[in-house]
Amino acid sequence: MENNIFVPSENTHGVQYQQQGRRVYAPDYTVTPSGTLDHIAAFLIGFTAGGAVLFIFYKIILLSVIGGVLFGTVNIFLAAQGAVKKRRYKLRVQFFDLLEALSVAMRAGNPPLKALQSAREDLLLIYPESSDIITELEIIIGKFNNAVPLSEAFTDFAERCGLEDVFSFASIYATIEGKSSRTDEIVRETKQIISDKMEIEMEIDTLMTAAKSEVNIMLLMPLVVLGVIGYAGAGFMDAIYTTGMGRLVSTGGLIVFIISFAMARKFSNVKL
């Protein structure tokens, strides 16, 4: 058995562990993995979309620029939240692969530590060493080598990632640890439950894809109509852009558009 030096300490990045002469940082899944270029791209997308929408409704360049800056800034935070969700989704898939590899190793009669090490070697064939699941495995194995129960290590992992499936597995493992000889079967059953849940979510997402496309088209069409009529309508829309009542109507239309966009996004996100 390898002897790992595994000492937790606090620093500005969170908790770090000294393992086999190198530092392993426990990932913080509440912090976005987005970099500076990602933030710039998110700002430009928000600026372009927000500025274009405001210009279609008002045809005031200064207002469009100011609104574009505001939308771009908001989109940075929205994109950051999306990156966090995407990272957690990838981690969930990686955790499912971990359970599958762990189940195979346990069915072969390996003890917990050997099963974890075997699962790590299998996962390294799929994921790079810098991936979240490999990092988590190194932390869990290092804790186990220093007499920390696996249930405690899995619970810490669950609390940091915030994934319901990991919470469920950690809770189940804490209940059976040292009390049951059916650990491999329980791991396999947990993996099957997660697999069924992910399959249902994928089917729902497939069914919702067409609906999302229709919603996006319906949201885009009013902007296209306003833009075409505004530029090719021979002054048909001038009253909207030059009179107080027209500005009021434009503002009302913009509010309805924003509410429709928000509701469409909310109702298209189905959670199990």
Walk me through what this model shows.
β1 and β2 (14-19) form a beta hairpin. The chain has helices at residues 36-58, 61-107, 112-123, 132-145, 150-161, 164-176, 183-232, 238-242, 244-267, and strands at 7-11, 14-19, 22-25. The radius of gyration is 26 Å and the shape is elongated. The protein contains 9 helices and 3 strands, in the order βββααααααααα.
Poorly predicted sequence stretches spanning 5 or more consecutive residues: 1-14
What form results from the Cα inertia axes?
elongated
Strand fraction band?
5-15%
Rg result: 26 Å
SSE order and pairing:
Blueprint: E1 7-11, E2 14-19, E3 22-25, H1 36-58, H2 61-107, H3 112-123, H4 132-145, H5 150-161, H6 164-176, H7 183-232, H8 238-242, H9 244-267
Antiparallel strand pairs: 1-2, 2-3
In short:
The chain has helices at 36-58, 61-107, 112-123, 132-145, 150-161, 164-176, 183-232, 238-242, 244-267; strands at 7-11, 14-19, 22-25.
Features:
single chain, about 270 residues, mainly alpha, three-stranded antiparallel beta sheet, 9 helices, 3 strands
